[in-house]
Every structure is written in C-alpha cells, then in structure tokens.
Amino acid sequence: MKKLKYSDITPENYYINRRNFIAGSAVFSSMIASGLTQNEAEASISQLSPNSLQEITNYNNFYEFGTSKTDPAKYSKKLTTIPWQLEVDGLTNKKGIFDLEKILNNKQLEERIYRLRCVEGWSMVIPWIGFPLKKLIDQMDPKNEARYVAFETLYRPDEMRGQRYKILDWPYVEGLTIEEAMNPLTFLATGLYGKELPNQNGAPLRLVVPWKYGFKSIKSIVKISFTSEQPKTTWSAANPREYGFFSNVNPNVDHPRWSQATERVIGEGLFGQRRKTEMFNGYEKEVGHLYKGMDLKKHY
Amino acid sequence: MIFSRSIKNYRILGLYIILLTPIPVYFYLGLKNRLGPDPVKFLEHKYGELALIFLILTLSITPLLKIFKVNLIKYRRCFGLVTFYYVFSHILIYLIFDIGLSLDLLVSDLKKRYYIIAGFISFMLLVPLAVTSSDKAVKRLSPKTWKRLHKLVFIALSLSIIHFILLSKTWTIELLTYTLATMIILLLRIKYKKYRLIFFNIFNS
Ligand code: HEM
User: Fold this and answer.
1) What's the pTM?
2) CATH topology for the A13-291 domain
3) Does the beta carbon of B122 sit less than 6 angstroms from any atom of ligand 1?
4) Which of the four pLDDT bands, split at 50, 70 and 90, describes residue B196?
5) Where are the domains of chain A?
6) Rounded alpha-carbon distances, angstroms, from residue A35 to A32, A38, B52
C-alpha cells in the first residue's frame, strides 16, 4: 500500500465530515471547540497509512452481530446508541449510572492512528477519535485496592442478533490491569475517520488497546468496574489454553493453532505481502516496561 | 441410442460448467478487488467451504438412492471431480496468496498446525481417487479394488470436517450443519450386522 500523506486523505471530505460529525450529533455538539489540532493529526498520520473507511467498516469481528466479518456491517444498523448509559461499579467512590453525553461533555477529543492486530493473523490501521481511558478513570476516582478494570458490552439480543446463539458466554466481558488501563496509549474511541463511530465498530464507546490482540478492545461498553481480582474475560473463559488474560501481540508466542510471526495486511488485495508482526504490535517502547520480568510465554 | 447418450453427455458437460463456474468468477472478482477488504481469505474460505459442500453432496448420492430411491448415480463422478477441483483451488490460494509460496511458512504449518495437517492428509487421500475416476481406471483396477480404494473418501471427509472444526474459533451454524451431515453420512455407512458379529465374537472368545 502506498504511504498516505496528509493531503491524500481528501482534506475537503475529511474536514466536511468532521464538521458534520461534530455538528450533527447531540452527543458531540458540546465539543466543537475541542477538535484535534492539525499538528497532532499530521504527526500521527505521517507514520502509519490508514485503511479506507470502506475497509474499516466492512471487515469486523463483532460476534454480537454474527460470526462472519461482513455480518456487523449488515446487521448492526438496528442498534440504538442514543441514549446510552455507562454504569460505573466496584471499588470506586463514584459508583453510579451515567449518561454517556455527560461523560463526554468535558472530554477533549483527539485523533489516534493505531495499527489493530487481530489474533487471527491480520492487521489494519485505523484513525480513531476519542480520549485516553486515563481521563475517565481519574474522574471515576477508584479506591486504592482497585488493581483491575473490568468492561462489559451491551446485552440486547433483539438488536444484536448474534447474541441469540450461545456461541460465546454473553455479555462479552474484558479486562485490563489498572496500570495497563492508565497507560497513555489506552484509548476510548467515540469516532473514526473524523466521524461518529459506526455501529459495527463498537458504537458509541469502545476500548482501543493497540498493543494487544483486537479482541481485548471491547466494543459498545455499558459497564466499567474496578476490582481487586483479575476479572473474567470472554475469550479466555471460552478457551483458556488459546487466549490469555494479557493477550499482548507477540510474534514469538504462537497461538496453539496458528503462527503469530507474520500478519496479512488488509487492503493490499490478492497480491499483498505479509508483514512481520512486531513485539507489542510496534508499541514496545511505550508499554514494554509494564511487563518487565514477566514470562510472556506463560502470561500470554 | 447414440443420440440419447450424447444428450446425456451434454447434460453432464453442462453440469460441470455450472458447478465449476464459481471458481473463475470469484477469482476474477478477487483480481478486481471486489471481494471485500480481504480477498485472500475470502477465496480461501469460499473454495474450502464449497469443496466441503460438494464432498458431502457427492457422498449423499448413494444414500439418496438406497433410502429415497432417487437415482442420481450418473452424476456422482461429476460431483466427485468438482469437489477435487475446489479442493485444488483452495490449496492453490493457500500456497500462492496466503503464505506467498513461502517454504518456511508451509513447513512450520505442516509441522505445527493440526488443522493444516488434517487438510493435507485429506487432500493426499483425494488425489488417488481423482486420478482413478475414469471408466478405464475402474476396469484396470477391477471394480472390486476400485470400490475398496474409493472407501478412502470417508476418511477424507472425516479429516476435512476435523480440519474445519480445528480452524474455527467457535461453533457456527454452518460448522454445525456440515458436522451433522458428515455424521449422518458416516453412520449410514456402518454395517450394523457386521459389527454385531464382531462384538459377538469378542464376547464369546
Ligand atoms: C493441503 C491441504 C489444505 C490446506 C493447506 C488447507 C488450508 C486451509 C486454510 C489456511 C484455511 C483458512 C483458515 C483460516 O481461517 O485462516 C482453510 C479453511 C477451510 N478449508 Fe482447507 N486446506 C486444505 C485442505 C482442505 C480440504 C481437503 C477441504 C475439504 C474438502 C478443506 C476445507 C476447508 C474448509 C471448509 C475451510 C473453512 C472455510 C470457511 O471458513 O468457511 N480444506 N483451509
């Protein structure tokens, strides 16, 4: 794929879209003033070339809407995301149920262009809009005993047809250590490509943890709780031998059924070349210290 | 006689063309980048899934005759060979486009990945069956040997479904359907009488 320069992203569209997304939605209208600066966007875009919106919104693993990669785009339109409430629970001084609108009110949105590496052995690059999870956690004032953060996806089978089959133990749950959650890279996305988050990508609020396999980045979050014990996570509950709690991207630790050394790059067509998978998906400098001295073969 | 026979041949030729058309059509769409963001996986999965479906259909023809008296035997060879062409296309997509003809990746897959091993053995079993599909081969081998050789197809089917189960992350509706169909086909083949005899012999000895 050719390297995208800032000017290649069809600036007109991009900015018209951005204005639309800011002006067009009640949730976002309060944030007109807080768009990202051009410098920030330029800095991140120059490193990674994003996949097209078409690719990002038509190749999704979101089993709540079906197991095929095209199911989420087909079946997620019915999902109601306004109003949306977020429950905060566990070891915190701010337990309660909050309107998402309120939570987003004082958050400055920024763009983050991250590579997403799926455990299945493919990757794509996505320009997210959102804010660091740390900002929300600070606001929620967790108690000192809180060592983990647990997340839960919406359970609403009449709008999420995949949940009518028990292929996984619904609702989908995920978790991070508090240190991972507080890392500056850990991000809550509310949009992508300058637009509101499409339903199939986890609207209206999803986690993005770029150094972990994609399934850790839980979508359509309705609940966040702070715990002292390592929380249950859906895929490792379904198959503990294959999916661990950490699930950091690691080319040296294979999935029992396939190699993780390389990945296919989505969007390169039939003749695309595989790329070498990087340790922590290329974010080793930023997050390697979190796992110092840890046996990553054991804590996969 | 000659006339009716040639009509029959045209029919079978037509059947081949219809059943095989998806292979070039999907490949063309792949070249034109019209199979979604990941044409490699699309083709790999599509050819693999169609191979399995045709294998199951091929092996349904005999039970269909025995139980429901529906006679499609004259199309059985066509279905069998179509199965083989889909398997072959499936493997070519894997070799050329998925692993990019990398010998390293192939060797490590064959050593480590159980689902690749199962698929590979299944393919190796299907090759001699495809090669001996002609009337000439039946005569050369003698029908009895030919029949015994072609029983390998049940092992190939079992390994194909194991291949699919092992590569899946969850039990999807499709996977359940194919597994159920495979189990029915295999169960119908077990000769109860023979096995009862064996059991008796074991207990009496
Ligand atoms: C050398 C032999 C074979 C190799 C290397 C091979 C390889 C593969 C690979 C790489 C996949 C995709 C896995 C993924 O999702 O990443 C796959 C899927 C599949 N293969 Fe094979 N395969 C072989 C033989 C066969 C045979 C003989 C059959 C059946 C007749 C078969 C049927 C399938 C099916 C049904 C799928 C899944 C399609 C889906 O997900 O819809 N394969 N195979």
Assistant:
1) 0.83
2) Sulfite Oxidase; Chain A, domain 2 (3.90.420)
3) yes
4) low
5) 13-291
6) 6, 9, 52
